[in-house]
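Sequence, please.
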């Protein structure tokens, strides 16, 4: 459009200055085209546009259709309309046929969900233009929304099996003077509570005898995910920020840039597998009503890990704010994920990404040991970038009696189990390996 307008001005000036009738004709022709094009923009479209998602949460790989509905409430016919819907950095175009009064038109396009992430959709806007394409007019008609693509998770068996089986309120081998699981009797020493004296045994032996108990522990699980890029082969994988819609019907699509700089790389595959492991462990614990803490690395500088610039801030779509202390403190290296419901946990996991500035596995473990008390079992989830020495050092920070399990994600390798003292290190190549690896390590 600007080129035609400039050509009209230049051709008219040169034509009248030099007396060239051809240039004058070109100028008037271009001006006439501009006038005709502007007439197509007179008035408002008046149509109603809505953007609908059957579900705002899907699992990576699931079909996610989006519906654009256009209705003409005016008495006049609506012609020449196109509806554009931004999908991440891509664009879905719906060409609307001529609509009479009261008629409507619906079109469906499929949002790609091959990778975990948050995909911004909308706002849907009506585009009006002339047939030649000189001018266009846009007006936003439907509010923006977003689609949460959850990581893939494994349908784990109940936590009555595997590691957590030993934490179902069962007695441990640690002895205590106050609990509910009776173990044996011993002689009274000054300071023992009188209520624990076993009077029948005292009467038989003539010596005051008190009860001794085995300590029982409730199930309190912590799952810690390293977001440090160096723990995943040195890359910096993250969630999908760009997406191009897949057409269905008559919808046409302009694709955006590639989704993620490390899509398909080893570091990215390790990180995505690690996120799925955390989601599987956390979701199972939530379903079983266990006490659960899911934590991830926070930025060393006191800021959050990488955010999604394409996801708009919308009413009712609040993000989980990391609980952090002052910059430089251990608590500043810890980010808590929501564990109220399974969906809330997977929502947070859909948004996270690795960063070079995030705390390493060792820093995360030390911060978690300081911040979260009463934990009975800890899962440390990382990639192949974390060395055995680093994993062992991370596990040492937890108090004695806490069972620490490290899950190393190495795509396409055979699952394995190593014992480093009291530390169990599981290596999995596929998400399906997790169930069997946990059961083997519990034996």
């Amino acid at each position: 459009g600007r080129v035609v307008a400039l050509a009209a001005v230049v051709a008219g000036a040169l034509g009248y200055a030099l007396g060239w009738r051809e240039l004058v004709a070109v100028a008037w022709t271009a001006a006439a085209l501009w006038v005709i094009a502007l007439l197509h923009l007179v008035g408002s479209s008046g149509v109603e546009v809505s953007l609908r998602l059957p579900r705002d949460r899907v699992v990576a790989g699931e079909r996610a259709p989006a519906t654009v509905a256009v209705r003409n409430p005016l008495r006049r016919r609506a012609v020449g309309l196109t509806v554009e819907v931004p999908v991440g950095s891509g664009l879905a175009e719906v060409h609307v046929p001529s609509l009479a009064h009261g008629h409507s038109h619906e079109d469906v396009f499929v949002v790609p969900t091959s990778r975990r992430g948050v995909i911004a959709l909308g706002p849907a806007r009506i585009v009006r233009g002339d047939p030649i394409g000189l001018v266009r007019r846009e007006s936003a008609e439907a509010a923006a929304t977003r689609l949460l693509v959850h990581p893939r998770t494994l349908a784990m068996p109940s936590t009555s099996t595997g590691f957590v089986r030993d934490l179902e309120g069962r007695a441990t081998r640690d002895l205590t003077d106050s609990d509910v699981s009776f173990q044996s009797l011993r002689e009274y020493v000054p300071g023992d509570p009188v209520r624990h004296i076993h009077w029948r045994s005292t009467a038989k032996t003539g010596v005051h005898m008190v009860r001794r108990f085995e300590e029982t522990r409730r199930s309190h699980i912590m799952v810690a995910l390293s977001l440090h890029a160096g723990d995943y082969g040195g890359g910096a994988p993250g969630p999908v920020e760009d997406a191009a819609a897949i057409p269905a019907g008559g919808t046409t699509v302009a694709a955006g840039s590639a989704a993620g700089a490390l899509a398909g790389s080893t570091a990215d595959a390790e990180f995505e597998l690690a996120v799925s492991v955390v989601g599987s462990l956390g979701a199972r614990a939530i379903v079983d009503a266990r006490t659960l803490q899911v934590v991830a690395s926070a930025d060393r500088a006191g800021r959050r890990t990488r955010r999604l610039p394409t996801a708009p801030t919308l009413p009712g779509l609040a993000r989980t704010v990391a609980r952090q202390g002052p910059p430089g403190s251990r608590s500043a290296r810890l980010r808590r994920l929501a564990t109220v419901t399974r969906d809330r946990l997977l929502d947070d996991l859909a948004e996270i990404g690795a960063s070079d500035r995030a705390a390493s596995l060792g820093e995360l473990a030390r911060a978690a040991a300081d911040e979260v008390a009463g934990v009975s079992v800890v899962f440390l989830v990382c990639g192949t970038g974390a060395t055995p020495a680093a994993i062992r050092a991370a596990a040492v920070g937890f108090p004695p009696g806490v069972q620490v399990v490290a899950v190393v994600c190495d795509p396409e390798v055979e699952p394995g189990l190593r014992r480093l003292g009291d530390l169990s290190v599981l290596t999995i190549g596929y998400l399906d390996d997790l169930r069997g690896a946990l059961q083997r390590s519990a034996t």
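The first strand starts at residue 48 and ends at 52.
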